[in-house]
Write a structure and sequence with these properties.
- The protein contains 5 helices and no strands.
- By secondary structure, it is mostly helical.
- The protein starts with a helix and ends with a helix.
Length: about 130
């Protein structure tokens, strides 16, 4: 069961690391999201978002191999994914780039659910 937990956290980590190249600038952000990020304030905010996702992705990957950290990793992953999906669906009107992010977050959500269930099952429900 622990191998399944590890695998699910690694997949969630990879999904959270995908925006990290956005740190490199507006061109990378544009290729990720299909939007124009030439406005300086928006570019700063989105580049910072890429850093935060990189941090969460690294934590998820690290926690995949540290069972004591896995509950916190699952909480962080769930907050990230569920909040984005809720915002996207409550707002609507998103483009194809955002639709790809939504799909990736659904995959991450499934992985987090499977991993969390496996973690609880392997711990005997403690």
């Amino acid at each position: 069961m622990q191998k399944l937990v590890t695998a699910m956290l690694i997949i969630a980590a990879i999904i959270h690391l995908l925006p990290l190249p956005g740190v490199l600038g507006s061109e990378r952000l544009a290729s990720l999201y299909g939007l124009n990020f030439e406005e300086a304030n928006l570019a700063i905010l989105m580049r910072h978002r890429a850093v935060l996702f990189g941090l969460l992705g690294l934590f998820l990957a690290y926690a995949a191999f540290r069972p004591a950290l896995q509950p916190l990793a699952f909480i962080g992953g769930f907050v990230s994914v569920v909040s984005f999906l809720a915002l996207a669906y409550s707002t609507g009107g998103y483009n194809a780039g955002t639709a790809r992010v939504i799909l990736a977050d659904w995959v991450a959500l499934v992985c987090l659910v499977v991993g969390a269930v496996a973690a609880v099952a392997s711990s005997g429900g403690r």
